[in-house]
Amino acid sequence: MSANNWTKPASRPQDIDNLVSGVDRYNPSNVSILEDYLYHQIRSEEYDCLANLAILKLYQFNPDLYNPDVVINILVKALTATPAPDFNLCISLLDERTPNTQSDEPDPLPVLLPLLRQLQDLLYKCRFPAFWKTYGSGEYESLRDNYTVEVTGFENAIRQVAIRAVTTTFTRIDSKRLGSYLNLDGKDLDAYVKALGWSVDNAGIISVPPNPDNQIEATVVQEQIKLPQLARVIAHAVKA
Amino acid sequence: MSQQRMALWAAEADIDEDVDLSLAIGNNYGNDHYEDAPIQPQIDGSTLIAMQQHMAQQAAFGQIPDVVKGFIVHFHQAVKDNNLAEIMVAYESGWNKYTEKFYSKTEWPEAEVIAPLVKDDPIFLILYRELYYRHVYSRLQPNIDDRFHSYENSCELFNYLLNSDGPVPLELPEQWLWDIIDEFIYQYQVFCTWRSKTKAKTDDELAMLAESGPVWSSYSVLNVLYSLMQKSRINEYIGAQREGKSVEEINEIVGEYGQKPLYRMLGYFSIIGLLRVHVLLGDFTLALKVLDNIELNQKSPFTRVTACHVATYYYVGFCYIMLRRYPDAIRTFVTILNFIMRMKQYHTRSYQYDQINKTADRMYALFTVCHALAPSRLDDNIANIAKERFAEPYAKMSRGGQDALAAFEELFLYACPKFIIANSPPYEDPVAIQALVSPSPGDSQPDLTAPTQLDATHRHLSLFLADVAAQTPVPTLRSFLKLYTSLGAKKLANFLDEDEEEMVQEMMVVKQASRSISRLPGTEGTGLLQGQTITTSDLNFVIDENMVHITESTVGRRYAGWFIKNTERTQKILDDLKNSPLPAPRANQSASAPEQQQKQAKPTGQKVAWGGVKTSA
Predict the structure, then answer these.
(1) In chain A, positions 42-101, which contact chain B (CB-CB < 8 Å)?
(2) CATH superfamily label, A1-97+105-169
(3) Contact across the interface for A96 and B421, Cβ inside 8 Å
(4) What ipTM is given for this predicted complex?
(5) pTM for the whole thing?
(6) Are A33 and A16 in contact (CB under 8 A)?
(7) How far is the C-alpha of B194 from the C-alpha of B229, rounded, in Å?
(8) Per-residue pLDDT of chain A (240 residues; tens, 9 = 90+)
(9) Which helix (H) or strand (E) segment is A199 a member of?
(10) Are residues B532 and B463 in the same domain?
(11) Do B430 and B495 fall within a single domain?
């Protein structure tokens, strides 16, 4: 995997790129452009971490702009990037806020933030069955009904997190085990595995296609001598 | 007076509408500004107060030791002549010498007092105040006036540099230019930390903070750094240089400002300054992104000032840790720690040596942290020093478990940057601030010195510790895996006394922990955020349904270092032998004794040795 697509996703429009790369990113009047772009990402299953960090940066400098719904959506999107550090990078920019007493509506972030951090923790620890159980529990209803339901393909994006972990670790995996990681069973699971292009044998064992991470090989690392190491010896020999 | 100065930086509000940050600086700064120094009573309306001030200043002037007066006159002359060598002497040794001698516990004379010595030269007085406040911050306890005035003085300096009619004819040593940027950010950081502690503020302080506006605001600080970068067109300069353009072409590109060493170096240092500011504010990606154009190698111009060189690597390395890119962090620390070790012999007496040493020690701590998380063989030498210095925490961290977390926390808090909160507590809102200062009854006793709940460091710490905690099972699992080439999952779970499914999920964490994004050799110049996934562990495994297969990469014996070292040693011995005089024949010893002594006294003289024979042969 390369970091190129992370620093500049192919789907990022040119005007957003100019904004994110230049000093314009500090201009508070651009926040709505970036917020619109976030909602575009949410609808079309795209993801652009750096652009979203730029929103949080503007919130950090201009507390008046703060919009908790936007923050929560950014964090939800960042969850799907695990095990990349995106979620933490977002939290790093969330300076503690003095509660705004004037506002009529209560700020949902203080309640949801610990829940989101719990989800990120489970994902980062590869506790996928526990993730689905927690995410489906009553406590998370407000997150599901108000936020993740709007994020197109959220659950599939989380499944991708699990698939990435499985791909690196397994050559073959029991379909029941994989099902528990993906929160899928029966026909849904069959369809999902088929869509991945993975094959299943009669006993329900799924073969994970070979990739650089699940091919293991014992190697002996040989020493390589670079020219600069020998520079002094050679220089001396020339002088003598 | 302070009112007038503040007006310039109130331009901050302009940023809101203004796209171009350099424009936001504005030109509403009165040209007559320098004429209102209080030393000239005719400008001050009320003569009586002015007279009193004048007399007090004369008294203060009388107190200054003559050598210091002489020093200031000399210093001023050097600055006026743009005599870099003399400025450097005054700046590096003179100032420190007289600080030790006369001002180790008290302020230097105020700029207004010494003004007659330098013929009221406004530029020198700004530079003098820069040193004056730096001394207050480093040796004494700055009060709120110092904090505000040092900000105003920095603004005057940057305003002079950026908004004069064309590039200013000033020249300063690179070291000083770095110190100006470095100190500016340091004072900003200290101010933010002080500001975020709402308790233990006097009423006067609360009132001043309520009105402080742009003083040390994040936008003001970024504004200065970006303006210096834009004015010097430093990024264009670096780009043009990389493309190998000629001097004329580069001069064309960078314009009249960028051609001058003063602006060019300030531009460079502002990039490093931005790196630091972004780290302090917790924006680790943006911090690395501003360095996109800078090549991290020993040839880069920012390495010419050692303090800058060291700071750059410290902040870059720290960013990599927060990005979970431990191999990159390790490489960064190893490079600079090796450099510091090599330069030790030259720098021990430099006044910055202590500071560099402290930073180095923090980097050893961070290196230890990374090494525990992603063991590598990059540099045994540095690894050994780090393990020796932090032996106990290192042992705990590499064992894993609860003790490990405490050790990670200890080293992180010791070595992390001094994080700040971007915004002020609501000093302008008396009700809100009152609620913060005196919490409702029932809350615990307010601790006057502790930071309030607005503590950035602990936020970053908790994120880092959560990452680390996720990895705590890794060392144990690895130590079991090392013993086998294949092993049933159930059996492994039994060893660990764990549920099989839980253990299999932990195995995915082990796999995850042994992969990292990292910059690859040969990709210099592509930006510090770029990289590819690499393997960070010697131990590799894969799960085939319920069977774990394990392999381990081993390292062949290394010979090169040994042979190179001994070849060099032999060459040196041979050289020494060739250069030493032939032993005098025994018979003549007494006769030629004086001559012999003479020869020994100056061994650099004529060499009657094998070397000579060889060259003539």
Answers:
(1) 49-50, 53, 57, 60-61, 63, 83-85, 88-89, 91-96, 98, 101
(2) ARM repeat; domain 1 (1.25.40.250)
(3) yes
(4) 0.90
(5) 0.83
(6) yes
(7) 28
(8) 577 788 888 889 999 999 988 888 999 999 999 999 999 999 999 999 999 999 999 999 988 899 999 999 999 999 999 899 999 999 999 877 665 555 567 888 888 999 999 999 999 999 999 999 999 999 999 999 999 998 999 999 999 999 999 999 999 999 999 999 999 988 999 999 999 999 998 888 999 999 988 888 877 777 788 888 788 888 888 876
(9) strand A199-200
(10) no
(11) no
